[in-house]
Design brief:
Length: 212
């Protein structure tokens, strides 16, 4: 497992929390927004290999993963990796829906903004919404003109084999309270599928479900 303190901290916290708070007849659902999506995958994947202070993650306690606007794929060669290689390693070790079918995967991406390179007329000119998206998408997937939620582009937000949900007009951040993944008018567009997947996971043994 990774040894960098910052990355390892997340892994240890998730593994410890599952060990301490999820009982033998309970399951946990990992719901992750933005970086929390791929960190949840890493936490369970590497957590199953834990040794030392944290207890290994019991995969039987994990019902599934739901990610909202998460950058699941590392940037292409030549583009700076803001995770310093952690995301690349996670995908190499636990590609796609690695823990399926014992755990389900749902990946959700907003389709709100197509990036557009901004041609500034002056250095102090504020960044446009499309210009910000262009810079973010280029750093995430290498294609600034992709479409996405304004921060994470569609090509990076889904995992092969996952239940993939695209949401028109949905933005990445709670800074847009009426049009982001957690908005009252948006949440049912992915929440209902999540509940359906949960029901199929827990119905045979009827364990209790917890959300982290």
């Amino acid at each position: 497992p990774p040894t960098r303190p910052a990355f390892r901290w997340y892994l240890d916290r998730v593994a410890t929390h599952i060990d301490e708070h999820v009982g033998p007849d309970e399951k946990v659902l990992l719901l992750g927004h933005s970086a929390g999506g791929w960190l949840g995958r890493a936490a369970v994947g590497y957590g199953n290999q834990m040794s030392g202070e944290a207890e290994p993650v019991d995969l039987d306690k994990v019902a599934g993963f739901v990610t909202l606007g998460a950058p699941h794929l590392p940037p292409p060669e030549g583009v700076m990796d803001m995770t310093r290689g952690a995301l690349r390693l996670t995908n190499e070790e636990f590609p796609g829906c690695y823990h399926a079918p014992s755990a389900f995967y749902i990946t959700v991406c907003g389709l709100a903004i197509r990036g557009e390179e901004q041609q500034r007329k002056a250095p102090w000119e504020p960044t446009t919404v499309k210009g910000f998206a262009y810079n973010s998408y280029e750093g995430v997937c290498g294609n600034g003109t992709a479409i996405g939620d304004g921060v994470v582009p569609l090509p990076s937000a889904h995992l092969e084999g996952a239940e993939q949900i695209d949401l028109e007009g949905v933005l990445h951040s709670i800074n847009s309270p009426d049009n982001w993944y957690g908005s009252i008018d948006i949440i049912d567009q992915w929440h209902d599928e999540m509940l359906s997947q949960v029901a199929s996971q827990i119905r045979p043994k009827r364990p209790t479900l917890k959300f982290f």
